[in-house]
Amino acid sequence: MSNQLTIFLLLMFSQALVPAAHAAPDAASCLTCHGAMQGSMEKEKGVIVNLNIDQDRFSKSVHSFLNCVECHMGFTSQPHQAPAARVDAAVQNLANALSAKSKIDAVAQAACAQVQCHGDVYKAYKASVHGQNVIVKKSSDGPVCTSCHGSPHYIQPRTGKDSRVNHFNVVETCGSCHEEKHLTEKYKFSPLVMERYKESFHGRKLKLGHSGAPACSDCHGAHDIRKAADPASPVSGANKLKTCGKCHPGATTKFVAAITHKPLHPVAHYAELGLIILTVGTFLFIIIHVLLDVYADIRDRLFRKGGNHE
Question: Which of 109, 115, 146, 258 shows the greatest Cβ crowding within 10 Å of its Cβ?
Fold first, then answer.
């Protein structure tokens, strides 16, 4: 009962901050309540809305300078009523197109496309294989902005170590979909694509912290990803020479053909496995040999010392 009373008082206080009946509330007004609320609610069957916004995390995000209604368009000083403010027609049309994926607030998802925000990015996204899947095919399993970048309330700069699209995190972010078995079967992804990448020279360098090692977006692009068979794809046909040439000047057709996510041929797989066993076995033999030699030397010295004493 005390929690309900607290929220009620916060609501009354937040309303007092916005005297005009239909004025747009600022972020502080919204966070007065949503910073204190806990738990979630079911908007419709299967659609859960988290009511709490962590104010500390929000203050450190790249969107902390925005007012809530710049994305959550339509809301006024009466947030518990149906949205009443006017929504830009272009944003509303895109929201309708994204509705299959963005069930909580498609308008807020589409608000990213505003010219002053990420208009160019959205233009590239709509032409990409991901955008076509969501906007044209109305697929509910295609990615939108928040699928890769995370909650818009907590997005970190790309250079931040906690960013989901940081150079060292983006492989795991892509893998969250591309390693899903049902998506692999549905969209005919290359099998074990992420596993093959992690086992590759590029993947191993990235794991060791090499900033120059290419991650997914360095070769395939980010917002404008196309199918490999699409002539506009950076990994399609002759484009692959140019893409690989950014890191490997003078790369030839034979060179780029060796860079693939396809599973190794059985002969190559077992040859690689054999070389690993041989290398590890050689080092183990050397280490054991050295340890036995040291042990024998220590034993002989102690034996001779003991003999002289007698």
Answer: 109
How many CB atoms lie under 10 A from the CB of residue 309? 6
**Beta partners for residue 40, in sequence order:** 50
**Nearest-CA neighbor of 62 among 167, 143, 162?**
162
Q: Residue 302: its pLDDT value, please? A: 82
Phi, psi (degrees; rounded to nearest 5) at 248: -125, 80
Interaxial angle between packed helices 2-17 and 27-34, expressed in degrees from 0 to 180 and rounded to the nearest 10: 170
Structure tokens at 148: 């890769």
The pTM of this model reads 0.75
pLDDT bin (cut points 50, 70, 90) of residue 194 is confident
Q: Kindly report the length of the chain.
A: 310
* Strand ranges (E), the chain: 40-44, 47-50
CA triplet 180, 130, 52: central angle to 5 degrees?
75
The Cα–Cα gap between 198 and 59 comes to 35
Tell which residue, 158, 235, 166, has the closest CA to residue 206.
Answer: 166
What token pair was written down for 152? 């818009």
196-243 tens-digit pLDDT:
898 888 998 999 999 999 999 999 999 999 998 899 999 998 899 999
Instruction: From 163, 176, 192, 214, select the one nearest 261 (Cα to Cα).
Output: 192
Q: What is the pLDDT of residues 279-290, one digit of tens each?
A: 999 999 999 999
